[in-house]
Amino acid sequence: MNILNSIHNMDVSTFYWLMARKHRQIMTRASRVVSMSADGPLYVLLAISMWSMGYSQCALIIAVGFTIERILYLLLKKSFKRNRPADILDDFTSFIRPSDQFSFPSGHTSGAFFMAYCLSEWVPEFYMSFYSWSAMVAMSRIFLGVHFPTDTAMGALLGTTCAMVTFEVLA
User: Fold this and answer.
1) Which CATH number covers residue 121?
2) Given CB 3.0 to 4.6 Å as the disulfide criterion, which of 27, 53, 87, 105 pairs with 154?
3) Name one GO cellular component term (predicted).
């Protein structure tokens, strides 16, 4: 348990360091927009659009991979039950109301990295844009005060891994 305490303490320190360096109003507004761009229903619309345009393989990869990612995400959330920053830090209030109780891993980040991987496979010339967006999603979740840095790091790992496995099996 000592290593988990060390990781948590480092996470809290990094969280406070990031919070101290952001320009609250500008970053909060920008973070809200970036975070909303990673809402799950948009991925469903993308899959439906791809299917309707004749890209059924791409739609299948999104549907199957995102389903697997969501199942793993929910299992991890319910297993770890890590409280959100506002729930454990005495002097902090988040800037948005999170959609669920626990913070580990970040679902927005996981979904964004899943999509960045998929889109990079299909349109490789834009991979920097896709991964820049997914990194901004991760940072937005921290800046909005609903995740610690390790929540987003594990979200990125989860999303990327699910995409890699889905491509290996279905592509």
Assistant:
1) 1.10.606.20
2) 105
3) plasma membrane
- Nearest residue to 74 (alpha-carbon basis) of 9, 162, 138, 166: 162
Picking from 63, 69, 60, 51, the residue whose alpha carbon sits closest to that of residue 170 is 60
pLDDT at position 59: 94
Domain assignment of residue 96, given as a range: 2-170
Distances (CA, A) of 108 to 10, 18, 45, 104, 161: 22, 19, 16, 11, 15
Condensed to tens digits (0 to 9), the pLDDT of residues 108-160 reads: 999 999 999 999 999 999 999 999 999 999 999 998 889 999 999 999 999 99
For residue 52, the number of C-alpha atoms closer than 13 Å in the C-beta half-sphere is 6
